[in-house]
Write a structure and sequence with these properties.
It contains four helices and seven strands.
Length: about 150
């Protein structure tokens, strides 16, 4: 009998209209309702020059922000090798430089940091937490295989 690991379910996909409402809220005077953990990120396509503006959950460590996205989503590929990005963070328009990592160990480390600060996000990633709030290591490794880590320096 062989045990196979089933891939984790993809993170929740939020409908476009919900993203538009979140972006509006984050750019409004009401932003304190969400801006401690959510920001607006704008990425420009390397070839198409199309601008992708999306709300993302983030963790801030000094002048560095980390966030993640699901690998099958396409916008993050514009950050390979480093790229300028625009942020709307806590009511302020900022410029930053973003890079992306698909290295599973780095992604796992980033996910762990995010989940320790925002344990409610575990359900978004389909990561189980133990009774002490620690992410299940095997489960986290699975999720890291289908997730990318984005690091932004502002």
């Amino acid at each position: 009998m062989s045990l196979t690991m089933t891939p984790p379910a993809p993170p929740l996909t939020i409908p476009g209209w919900v993203n538009r409402v979140i972006i509006w809220l984050l750019r409004s005077p009401l932003h304190p309702l969400m801006s401690r953990t959510t920001m607006v990120l704008t990425v420009t396509g390397q070839q198409s020059k199309r601008r992708y503006t999306i709300p993302v959950r983030y963790l801030q460590e000094g002048n560095t922000l980390i966030t993640t996205t699901y690998r099958p989503r396409l916008w993050w590929r514009n950050l390979r090798g480093g790229a300028p990005v625009s942020l709307f963070l806590a009511g302020n328009e900022l410029a930053g430089r973003a890079d992306v990592s698909t290295n599973s160990e780095e992604v796992e480390q980033g996910l762990r940091a995010i989940l320790l600060q925002m344990p409610r996000d575990a359900s978004i990633y389909h990561v189980r937490l133990d009774r002490h709030g620690q992410p299940d290591t095997a489960n986290l490794k699975q999720v890291a295989q289908v997730t990318v880590l984005i690091t932004i320096h502002v």
